[in-house]
Structures are given as C-alpha cells and as structure tokens.
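=== RUN LOG ===
request id: a7f3
mode: sequence -> structure
chains: 1
length: 623
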Amino acid sequence: MKGNLLFLILFGFAGLSFGMLRTNISLPKNHPNHYSHRLHLEDQKIVLKINSKLKVQSQRQTFISEILRYADDQSTGKILLTIQGNPANNSIEIGDRILFMGKLEAINSPLNPGQFSYKKYMALKGVYHQAAVKSNSYINLKSVNPTSYHIENTRNNLLHTIDRLCFNERESGILKALLLGERNYIEQETFNAYKKAGALHLLAVSGLHIGIVLLLLKFVLSPLTYFQKGDAITTALIILILWFYAFLCGFTPSVIRAVSMFSFVAYAIYLKRVRNSFNFLGLSILFILAFLDPFLLFQVGFQLSYAAVVSIFWIYPKIYPIWKSRYIITTKLWQLIALSLAAQIGVFPLILFYFNEFPVHFLIVNIAIIPFLGIILGTGFLLLILASFNLFPSVLLQSYQILIWSMNEIILGLGKQKVFILKRIYLDGFGLVLLYLIIILIFHFYDRRSFFYLRLTGLFIILFQVWNSLSLFNKSKEQELLILHTPGKTTLLKKERRQPILYSSDTVVNLRLLDPILTSDRLKELRFKKLKNVYILKGKHLVLLNNLSFPINSNYKTHFLLLTNSPKINLNRYLDSLQPKVVIADGSNYNSYVKRWKTSCRNKNITFYATAERGAFAISSLD
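=== RESULT ===
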C-alpha cells in the first residue's frame, strides 16, 4: 500500500506539473492567433466549428464552438454560440462549420454575491465570449470531419431509438442520461429531485457507469479468451469500445476521467496486476492532465470523481472488515454500505465547499438503486441493440419500463424529504484543507493505533474549530448594506452583527437569491422591513427616489442616491440640490430611463452605477 500511495503521489505530481505546463500553453494570451487579441466592437464575419451541444430550450440552442476564422483572419479559441429559433428547424450537428456575421460579447458575471458564476465555469473550459445568431442568419457549411459526423449521427439515432421504446417523456429523459449521458431531455423538476436526493451522479456517465460497462464487456467478450492471444484481443477491444462509448456520450469530463482510468484498469486485469489500484489512478491523472485537457483539474465534477475513487481505494478496505456476516445477502449489503460510506467521506468536504449543503440520505439512494444499476444499464444497452433491428420484445420492454419507473419514484420521493438535507454549511478553502487533513489523520490513527496520531488529530480538530470561530467573529464585525439586483423589484440587505434585515418593495422574496449570502456571511434568519426613503451611513445619507413624491432637502448630506421604479422626475434638479457622489439605479427601472440617467450623471461628472450592468452595490461602515 505504501508503494502504491508513493506511486500515486509521484505520478500525481508529474501530472500536475505537465498539466500546469499545458494550462500555461493553452492560455489565450499565449496564442498569437487567438481571437481575443483582435476583438472588434462591430459585427464581423465568423467561421466556427461546432464542438459540443449544451442545453436545448424551446426557442434557442447553445453550442460550444471553436473559431476557425474571425474578421477574415485565421483564428483560434472557443466561444458559446446561441442559435435563436425553434431547435427543430436547425439541423446542426457536431463537427459542422457555421458561417455568420456577428459580434462577440463577454459572458456575463453574476449580478449578486454568492451566485453561480457561469462566466468562471465556462472560463475553465477555455470559453470567454459568446455570440447569438438567428436561425435564418447563418450558413451551415456542414461537417469537414466524417468521423465526428458519423459518431454524432450514431448518437442521434440512439436517442431516437430510446424514444421509440414507448417510454413517457420523464422516463425517456432519464434513460437518455443513464445510457448516453444526455441530460438535456430531463425535466427540470425531475433533475432537481435527483439533485436533492443526492443521486445526481446517476445522471452523468462517470466511474460507476464505466465500471459496470467494463464488467459487461468482459462478460460478453469472454468467449474470445479461449483463442490464442484472446486475452490481448479482448483487452484491446474493451479499451476501443470504452473510448467509442466516451465519444457517444459527448466526451464529457466525467466520461474522460472514467474511461481513462478504466482503460488502465482493463490493462491491469490483462497483466493480472489489478491490486495496484493507486498506480493506475496515478497514470490516469497523468494521462488526462498532460495529454487531454489540463483545465479538467479545476472542474468540480472532475475533483469529486477523483476524490470518490481515491477514497474508495484507500478507505473502503479499512471500513469493510469492521463487521462480518455469515449470510451472503447481509454481506453484500454491508459491502454496498461500506463502498458508499467510503465514497461519501472522500467527497464530503468538497460538497460542503462548493454547494454548502449535504444530503444525508445518500445511503438510502445507493442501497435502493446501485444494486440494480448493472441490470438497468445492461438491459438498456440490449434493448437499444434489439430496437436498432426493429425488435421490441414486449415482456422485456414492459419489465424494463417498470424498473425505470420504480427507480424514478424512489428518488422523486426521497428528493421531497427536505429534512434529510443539511443546508447553509459554510466551508472556506483553508477549512477544506483542514477537514481533509483531519480525515486522513483519523484513518491513520485507525491503522496504527498510535497515540501520536490521536493527539495530532485532536490538535487539527481544535485548529478547525478555532479557524471557524475566528471566521465567524470577523464576519460578525462586518457591517454592510447591499443593494441587490432583483428585476422589477427593489431589495436592500443590511448585514449587521449577524442580524440581517431585508428591506424590499415586495413581500415575496426569492430565498435562492439570498441563501448564498446568508451562508457565506454566517447570518441568522432574516428580519423583513418595509423600504425607507432615507438610510444613514456614518453621517452620510442614502436617499431612495421612486414614483412617490419626495421633497428635495438640501440639508441632507447625500452621498448615495438610489433610483427605483423608474421615477418620472427631473433628475437634474435632484442632482443640483442633493449633490450626490454616487447615483445608483437598481433592477426595478426601465432600461431607457437608466440610459438617460447615465448620460445626465456623465454630464455632471457624477459616478453612475446600474446594477443590471455591474451587479449588486455594496456600502460598508453602517451606523
């Protein structure tokens, strides 16, 4: 085990080194032909190649695309391309080249603190800009790569075959995700239920799926092992089929990671060295980061996948021997529980760090679903093959429909049980490192029964508590007034001594908007109050102007002037009388009014801030 762990560390370090080199080389500023070096404000002729398909909506379709030519110059780089119009009228396939006149715009940042940053998410994929084009305003030059065209065509045929299996819309969407990693067809309600139940990993083709596929392939191809060099032929076929399956699943990060690792596992089985798990995990890290995509290292799914696998390899052998049973059923059940616990221990800190919540009913999901996942995948692939030859065995099909329906009902039921989800748990980067060190030390103590490791574990637990207490104390001293961006509404959040007050023009408040702020700032439950016309901030005044009459009072030492609900006023009069330093327009105003106010402030050399453009406005140092 020591040798395996050392091998993993060395190859992990080598993979990180190569990955950092690859990342540095891949940065746009290091590519002289990258489109970002010659961006134009006006429309330009753009030729790009479609790389992958993102979420499909009723009147729009979005793709990650690779620029080939920009402004008549050969260029490189990736952008988001949105085709506006009914997707059914757009016959765009992966690998197609698209020609259009358009303008590249930066991907928007989140407008409120703590919100998911799609801009950062896409930047990790090397995508920094976006373009939108109407369905009748582009020319499809078709694919120049017959291989990618045929793979995408095969994928689309399989998706249509699933529709022919007579499933309803919900079950069909789930099956497309399970078998082909296609989550665009899942209803939002169903997707949210899987997320709340801690079963979202079932809807992404990852290590669990690829491991089962590997076992299925070994079983199907086992007759070849009776021939001369049959083992080598079987291994080569398994690896080829796994990578072809990765392309069919869209070559997503989870698939790349899983197929890379299990390709090495298949080779290890051939060499009869399957016990050296950490060796092949290290090789897969090196292979992915050095030769495929170094940006995968920064993606949450990639980190969660490797954390789970490392934890299973290291922690499962320590948990499983704790209890033994004389009965096969209870033994298998305990194996499943131990595997699930090991995986969840590995991903627990990362889940808290990224999502600030944790589903505690993961064991129920894994025990209820995973034992049948092999049957679900194997039968699903068999039905796809039979349906491709227009064979629809009724008994098998009906049994399979019942199985998929039962799985959905179990997860939908668990997803509604909010009591099983721990929310608003904040963990920062240093806390994440401390928590992983505590987990490592606990299992080192379990292995060696050393008083030294017990004391060291206790020390780090105390350090973790002290760090959390200091962070909480520092947050409690912060005083701030946030003018949030809420379309059509005015919302102010006052953070003071962990007693937040929400001033809002609407009694209905979007708690999803406020949850990230309350979690990161360790704030207690909200108190709600009506909006006021004046707020005092260390002797300065924040004056709120709306459609209601408000007298001009030059006695106010107005520093901030907040415009709400598109007030029909002569702004210049207020600017001359109140002489504000900053004028703020929130999300409750019409865009035409905001543009006019911006011009007025520019003419009087007054700072203007629109939350619709720049996000929430923060004012510190409250009285």
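=== NOTES ===
The chain has a mean pLDDT of 80.
The longest strand covers residues 44-57.
=== END ===
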